[in-house]
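A quick aside before the break. I want you to see a complete sequence-to-structure record at least once, exactly as it would be stored in a machine-readable document. Don't worry about memorizing anything.
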Amino acid sequence: MHTPRWPGVCQAMRGTMVEPSLTSRLRQRSRRSGMLIGLSMAISILIIIAGFIWIYVRLGPYLSDFIPSGAADATPSPTEVAAVATPAATPAPAEPTPAPPPPTPTWQATHRVSANTDVNFRSGPNTISPPIRTLAPGTLLQFLGEEQQSGNTTWMRCRLEDGTEGWIAATLVAPHEP
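That is the input. The structure line, written in tokens, reads:
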């Protein structure tokens, strides 16, 4: 009969010399490391989400000209409803009087903001130019006759009623019917 040179090694290989406290320590460590990995993954996901939110907030003003806002608002404004509901009936004058010449308008609205959300009124015909201000839906504009193409977007040069001039994407406006 042959006796092994290292009897403890042979016994350990067969699993008979395993220390019970060693297996419980290994299980505890694997649980701890699993919890740490899960916690680090959760923190990483939160950091990534926070980063995307920060980027969206920072780039939002520059991209708002291209974010579709849905169909044009079909609800008439209160002034349109009032104009339709109460037709102007003028009594015929007793004596015809010569009409004074119409005053030359200095500002006349030709377009209005047709988007459902606020849009940027920019200093130049692109999204890189800083916004002068934001315009609410329905804001009246006077088209100055100048258009420029930038990428796939046509930009219109317009004037506001207060005299401020700037650029707006043509897809965000509609003709105004006085």
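Two observations worth writing down. Residues 20-63 form the longest helix (44 residues). The two ends are 114 Å apart (CA to CA). We'll return to this after the break.
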